[in-house]
Specification:
The complex is a heterodimer of chains A (about 700) and B (about 150). Helices cover about 30% and strands about 25% of the residues of chain A. In chain A, strand 3 and strand 4 form a beta hairpin. Chain A contains 17 helices and 28 strands. Chain B is mainly alpha-helical and about 150 residues long. The chains are: A alpha+beta (about 700), B mainly alpha (about 150). At the A-B interface, helix 5, helix 7 and helix 16 of A face helix 1, helix 2, helix 3, helix 4 and helix 5 of B.
Chain lengths: ~700, ~150
């Protein structure tokens, strides 16, 4: 395989070893040192001890291998798959590996983040190098003991053998290995020799999950800890005037009530008392900034699309002229609502702030940023802060924003006791970092039966598409191409929601392509394939999708879905998308019942390069597809005078089992470096379903949620 | 009676079983999801039947037998737990103890369910990661192992 060695690194700054006081060897690694702006200082080996590294291999002298998973686990499976990369090159049996979650270590990592479907992609090279280097040092130690050359030794599942047939286990030589210089020029395995990568590995926490062991943030307990429920402004834009806590104080179990900023914290010796105490508070609020409603947002965003105040993110050729010269123009507007994340585990965090140190613990996708923010908030040195990452009951982007951890730190600081802030479901839904409402207007110009121009306009609340998104397909495929964006700044808080922007953009574009093909009277899928033929990847480095790989997934989706050859009463819709470095094509099969679509099956073909853990990968893809369909069909959070109009699952609908299709997953087999899987299967799903609904009913859906707009 | 041992609980009458389990007895396997009986994360067995512990008030439970995920089997070897492991159901895993408790109660009543019966029976349990295909398969596997 051709190694995409973007992560060239200095071995010296990358790996560190030490003998453990308790026996055994540590090999620590600085993940992504090469990506950091500052170079690491040379390592002082004498300073290393167990506490120095949070992400490393620990080989005990009895040969037991512990691998620390560096990144936050939100259900995307990196606690299993990242250690697999190390174990593969270390050459140990996966069944002999113990995985532990690493804690935050800002000195030695630059990307302890769960986001952007980047964990595996960015760790692919460094983590395998770590395992391979450790293996080489163990071999060198054994070779020294035998008086043979390292090249004469081989390893298998933690045992080193020499040409004479003598063997030593890793545990036998681990202390010697720890004293060796870190070797250079380690060769990594060829993919054909992989024994762990590419094999199914069950979730490393499976036993704990199925027996209900404490794993998650809400399960975190410490002596003397108060449970905290926080009263926050009921509407966006409101400020606290005053409050009456006389009734709250009478609730059994309530121990303290503290105002901080615009909020009031109720501390109690159990969660229920804290929740009840909060409900017993009465408060007066005043308008700080203007209260906004969904009808305002709709008008404002449509006004932006009709207007002329745009920022242009990409412009090829002359779109204006293409539209002036056109025989025909197709223009459509697509509309999406706000969406809450609705992680099943409501937001929560533990903090113990005292004069000596600050201990934080809980579910967070951005531990490093959160620790920095707490330090700044409390005017403390970051060195005083430790942060323990728990398993997360879902993330989907919501736990990138650690406001709940700041609340915990602030309350603990004021109360002078350890606290756990717990959101109720209502708190969680009403205090979100929502997927912002976005509207797209897409137009295409047609001349002599050909697509000559493509103009994509985005109007969004608070922020616009970023990064390489304007360069995704069909950028590069149409000569005159332009992406314009505009935004409206609202006081409603928004943020990244699984596959930001593309989660709706893919729906808009892939719905539009179907309609465009119909107008041109060409085959819907063939039109996309023809456009892909025009993409010259080498001409424009901003275009990182591969036309060949998209073509690959499209062709396999046609084959695997039995495209065009369905039973009577089954209607199919197609969609394809590239995002998060991964190429996907999906076909939805639907049936109509009482005028309503039943999504029976989705065939998803995905090219994410080498599949590290097929079992976990399949779960990610199935989940992403159903998540995409569920939110497109039912998801919507509206506002009236700043107040979210849904607060729990009686008035907010999430997809349930009896509404879910069977998802059939196919991976393209190749030996390319792996790319992300947490997000890419979601964006194409909605358009596949909408295109199938069109096939069944002749009605185009341009607005989500489908149930309200079809 | 909780997981085979007698407990005397001191709590206000309106305290939901969920919080008694989690905060008093420190059985945290039963999860908080919505607090209104709509998501199923808090599912336990009360006298052998699946129930939402977040809306089961402690005052109504005197003399009842309660089983939580921690008490479903001694070593995590209940057929439903085994099936969950075989299929490798969880993604984030948070809702899964509730899913397992709902499935195990359902299979007590119907050990040979159809696909549609499974999908119907599990309607009350949300999985936000949408591991529904795997849950469905695991319930089928468990049913086979039970019968």
């Amino acid at each position: 395989m051709k190694s995409e060695n973007k992560f060239a690194f200095s071995r010296r700054s990358f790996l560190k070893t030490s003998a453990l006081a308790s026996g055994g060897m540590l090999i620590g690694f600085n993940l992504f040192t090469s990506c950091a702006t500052t170079a690491e200082p040379p390592v002082d080996l004498s300073l290393l001890d167990f506490n120095d590294f949070n992400a490393f291999i620990k080989i005990a002298d009895n040969g037991i291998v512990t691998i620390f998973a560096p990144n936050p686990e939100i259900g995307q499976g990196v606690k299993t798959s990242m250690p697999m990369l190390i174990a593969e090159e270390l050459d140990v049996a996966w069944k002999d590996v113990y995985v532990q979650q690493g804690a935050l270590d800002k000195d030695h990592f630059t990307r302890q983040v769960a986001g952007g479907s980047q964990s595996i992609r960015q760790a692919w090279e460094p983590l395998r190098q770590t395992g391979a280097t450790a293996r080489m040092m163990l071999i060198m130690a054994a070779a020294n003991r035998w008086g043979v050359k390292p090249e004469e030794c081989t390893t298998k599942e933690g045992v080193i053998s020499n040409a004479k047939g003598e063997t030593l286990s890793y545990g036998d030589v681990v202390l010697d290995a720890a004293k060796l210089e870190v070797p250079e020029n380690i060769t990594l395995k060829s993919p054909k020799d992989f024994t762990i990568i590419g094999s199914d590995a069950p979730n490393v926490d499976i036993d704990e999950i199925i027996t209900g062991k404490p794993l998650f943030g809400l399960d975190y307990r410490q002596k003397g800890m108060a449970f905290v429920s926080v009263l926050r402004p009921p509407a966006f834009g409101q400020e606290l005037v005053d409050f009456d806590d006389s009734k709250a104080k009478q609730v059994t179990g309530v121990t303290n009530i503290i105002q901080f900023g615009n909020k009031v914290a109720v501390l109690a010796n159990n969660t229920w008392a804290a929740i009840k105490g909060k409900k017993a508070l009465t408060a007066n609020w005043k308008e700080g900034t203007k209260a906004e409603s969904t009808t305002d947002h709709d008008n404002i965003l449509l006004g932006l699309l009709d207007g002329s105040k745009f920022e242009t993110l990409r412009a090829d050729g002359d779109v204006k002229k293409a539209f002036e010269d056109a025989d025909e123009v197709l223009e459509r507007t697509y509309e999406s609502p706000f969406l809450p994340h609705n992680c099943m585990e409501p937001m929560n965090f533990y903090a113990d702030v005292n004069p000596e140190r600050i201990k934080l613990a809980g579910p967070i996708q951005t531990p490093a940023r959160t620790a920095s923010r707490v330090a700044k908030l409390l005017k403390r040195d970051e060195k005083d802060i430790t942060l323990e990452m728990t398993r997360m009951g879902g993330g989907f982007g919501r736990r990138l924003y650690g406001g709940f951890a700041l609340e915990a730190a602030e309350v603990s600081n004021l109360a002078k006791q350890p606290v756990q802030v717990v959101f109720s479901r209502e708190d969680d839904m009403a205090n979100g970092k929502y997927r912002p409402a976005i509207k797209y207007r897409i137009s295409a110009s047609i001349k002599d039966g050909k697509i000559t121009g493509y103009h994509l306009k985005e109007a969004a609340i608070n922020s616009n598409m970023y990064g390489l998104i304007p360069n995704f397909f069909p950028a590069g495929a149409i000569e005159n191409y332009q992406v314009d964006v505009a935004k409206y700044n609202s006081n409603i808080t928004t943020g990244a929601w699984r596959a930001p922007y593309t989660n709706f953009l893919a729906f808009a574009e892939q719905s539009f392509f179907d309609e465009l093909a119909d107008l041109l009277k060409v085959d819907r899928i063939q039109m996309r394939l023809d456009l892909l033929k025009k993409v010259d990847k080498t001409a424009d480095e901003r275009i990182q999708y591969s036309a060949d790989r998209l073509e690959g997934v499209i062709n396999m989706a046609i084959e695997k879905s039995n495209w065009g050859n369905t039973k009577d009463g089954v209607y199919q819709g197609f969609s394809t998308y590239y995002c998060h470095n991964t190429h996907v094509a999906e076909v939805a099969d639907i049936e109509m019942k009482d005028g309503k679509p039943l999504v029976k099956k989705v065939t998803c073909v995905i090219d994410c390069g080498i599949v590290v853990n097929p079992l976990g990968a399949k779960n990610q893809v199935m989940g992403g597809v159903i998540d995409g369909i569920g939110h497109a069909m039912y998801g919507e959070l509206t506002f009236k005078d700043g107040v979210p109009q849904s607060d729990n699952y009686l008035n907010y609908r999430l997809i349930r089992m009896d509404e879910t299709p069977e998802v059939e997953v196919h991976f393209i087999e190749n030996e390319l470096a792996p790319t992300g899987l947490g997000e890419p299967s979601l964006p194409p799903a909605a358009a596949a379903v909408a295109n199938a609904i069109y096939a069944a009913t002749g009605k185009r859906i341009t607005k989500q949620p489908f149930v309200k707009n079809m | 009676m909780i997981n085979g041992s007698q407990h005397t609980i001191e709590a206000d009458d309106d305290t939901p079983l969920l919080w008694v389990l989690r905060d008093q007895i420190e059985l945290v396997g039963t999860k908080f999801g919505c607090g209104i009986g709509q998501c199923g994360a808090c599912t336990v067995h009360i006298d052998g039947k699946a129930a939402k512990s977040c809306i089961s008030l402690i005052s109504t439970l005197e003399g009842k037998t309660i089983t939580t995920i921690e008490g479903l089997s001694e070593h995590g070897t209940h057929p439903v737990q085994e099936a969950w492991k075989t299929i490798d159901v969880p993604q984030c895993g948070y809702c899964q103890s509730g899913q397992i408790m709902a499935a195990s109660s359902f299979l007590e009543e119907n050990s040979n369910p159809s696909k549609d019966e499974i999908r119907e029976a599990m309607h009350g349990n949300i999985c936000r990661c949408a591991s529904y295909n795997s849950i469905e398969k695991a319930v089928e596997v468990a049913a086979k192992n039970i019968s």
